Amino acid sequence: MADQMTAIERFAAYSKGEPIDRLPCVPIVGNTAARVIGVKVSEFRGNGRLIAEAQVAAYKRFGYDIIRIFTDLYTQAEAMGAKVYYPADETAYLDIPAVREVGQIGSLQPADPYKDGNLPQHLEAMRIAVEQVGKEVPVTGAVTGPFTNASFLIGTENLVRLVGKNPPAVHKLCEVSLETALRYAKAIIDAGCSPSLTDAMSSTTLISPRQFREFSLPYLKKLIDYIHSCGKAVTLHICGKTAKIWELMCEAGADCLSIDNAASLLEAKHKVGGRVRLMGNVKPSEIMLQGTPADVRKAVIECVKEAYDNPKGFIVASGCSLPTETPFANIDAMLDAVREIGYPVNINNL
């Protein structure tokens, strides 16, 4: 089934309550884009043009509603001195934090997104994508939240320990991470894109709601307030279990909550659906990677049943970034299911 609207037309009409052809749909394609153009994931390092080529090709191949320029969570921390390991053909991971001891925190400096690490290459990718397809689909740049970036600067285990034993040190790490995030967000907006926030370590799987309020919320709010001041809306994704902090995520100012598959869309709709748009939450590994197209279709229908009538709107999406080897047939199945369902949704037909 063919789309009747571009993504930008669809979002604009949806936000105004005007007719649309289908719900917006975003299988969160990260490094799966490498498979679309037949390159290795490691080739993205230092190559903004290749990142753009892959992400634009993936968008054209599948027809989803948001391009997200993203390779891994560590780009900001790497630009601040952390060492990142790049496997030959998989997603990068943190190798060595920027600092080892509390006494070294003062040496950390905010990154310059136009000079440091791979940030300039990601900005180049954003500019190219906007130039090529920005009139038909929104292009976003992934920004790692301050608390999560702080964990990459000193190591997750160290940060969790410091949360209890040395709160001032945690705040220093978050403050310098916030400054990098603010600079990067400005550069993303100047490139014609919208920042999209991911704050994986702020999950209640790792910290308590009280700790989220103290160490994550203030910095997220400052970052989101800045993005709003530039006229951009904000989607916030926090991995894992988040039900106990949905209200706080709304308090931070997020316009859309990307709900991980570990949480319930139905519960989120009842708790905060009157305040924010919801996005999610087909399982990336169990369904999108390991399932069949029929499994994907069934999962999409279940998500739509739970959240199609969310007061602030709903985007069908994967619960997190797709694994690199996600079958193309399953991504097609997600879009096909949303097109088949159409809009307005007739719940009796699902």
UniProtKB/TrEMBL annotation:
Enzyme Commission number: 4.1.1.37
Protein origin, superkingdom: Bacteria
GO MF, any single term: uroporphyrinogen decarboxylase activity
Lyase keyword on record: yes
Keywords: Lyase
Enzyme class: lyase
Pfam families: URO-D
Domain Uroporphyrinogen decarboxylase (URO-D) residue range list: 7-340
Lyase recorded as keyword: yes
Protein's name in the database: Uroporphyrinogen decarboxylase
